[in-house]
Amino acid sequence: MDAEVKKLLALKADFKAITGSDWKPGVSVPSSPAPAPAAASAPADSGAADEILAKVAAQGDKVRQLKAAKASKAEIDAEVKILLSLKAEYKNLTGKDVPPPGQAPKQPAQSVSSIKSRSF
Question: What is the mean predicted confidence (pLDDT) over 84-89?
């Protein structure tokens, strides 16, 4: 149980880092996250997004295992809430929904003007 509490505290810290506010039950996730610190860069966001995707995959596997093992509804619900918070965290960071299991996130398409401005 201690490991799960540590996981929850880490997720709450991630939520605060992204949104700039503490997580509270019943609070809705803001539509736009708090401005990121000036030191943050786009590659760091990509790494954070990949890390969150890995957490989402692991948490999804855990929920599936609990369901297969016919765990109690309360236990499954608690783990599903963690999964949903991870998905919300990913969406706040990237602006996109988490892709279905087994699919890589879509890369943004290059704009025509950026392609035309290149010299070949």
Answer: 90
Q: Which domain holds residue 19?
A: 2-116
Q: What is the pTM of this model?
A: 0.51
Considering the chain, what percentage of its residues have pLDDT values greater than 90?
A: 21
What letter represents residue 16's amino acid? K
Say how many domains are in the chain. Answer: 1
Quick one: CA dihedral 43, 45, 46, 52, positive or negative? positive
Angle subtended by helix axes 42-68 and 73-94, to nearest 10: 160
Domain holding 34: CATH number? 1.10.287.10
The residue behind tokens 């943050």 is 40
Q: What DSSP state is assigned to residue 69?
A: T
Provide the H-helix boundaries in 1-120.
2-19, 42-68, 73-94, 112-116
Residue 75 CA to residue 87 CA, distance in Å, equals 19
* CB-CB neighbours of 5 under 10 Å: 9
Residue 37: the pLDDT is 47
